[in-house]
Amino acid sequence: MIKFLIRTAIFLLAAAIGILLTDWIFSIFDLETFDINWSNPLAFVLAVLIFGAAQGILSPFIAKVARNNAPALLGAVGLVTTYISLLIAWLIASDGLDIGGWQGWIIGPLVVWLVSMLATLLLPIFLVKEGVEKVRENNE
To answer: Which residues cross the membrane (predicted)?
Structure first.
C-alpha cells in the first residue's frame, strides 16, 4: 500500500511539473495558448488531479486497445493519453487551466508529455538519493 501511495504521489507530482513547465515554456515564447490561471490555485490543483487520474485510468485501456488492434501505435499511447487527459482536465477544471489555439493543443500536450515523462523517471532517483542521504545522516 505504501508503494502504491508513493507511486501515486510521484505520478501526480510529475503531472504538476509537466503542466507547470509547459506553462513556463509557453510564457517564455509569449504564447498565451497554454496558461495556468494563478488567481484560482485550487482549480489548478483540481486540474492536476483530474489530469493525473485520467492518465492513470486511460493509459492501460488505450494500451490494451492499441496492443490488440494497432500494435504500431503502442509507442504513442503516452502522448494520446496526455492529450485526452488534458482535454478532460480543461473541460472539467477550465478555471485552473486555459488551453486554446493550435499551439496549445498541438505543442502543449507534447511538452507536457515529454516533461512529465522525464519527471516520472527522474523524481524517484532524486527522492531515493535524498532518502539514502537522510538514513546515512541518522546513522552517523
So the answer is: 9-29, 41-63, 70-93, 105-128
Domain range for 68 is 2-139
Over the stretch 74-109, which tens digit does the pLDDT of each residue have? 888 999 999 999 999 999 998 999 999 999 999 999
- Number of domains composing the chain: 1
Structure pTM? 0.86
3-state SS, residue 94: coil
Distant-in-sequence contacts of 10-14, Cβ < 8 A, 24+ apart: 10/120, 10/123, 10/124, 10/127, 11/52, 11/55, 11/56, 11/120, 12/48, 12/49, 12/52, 13/119, 13/123, 14/116, 14/117, 14/119, 14/120, 14/123
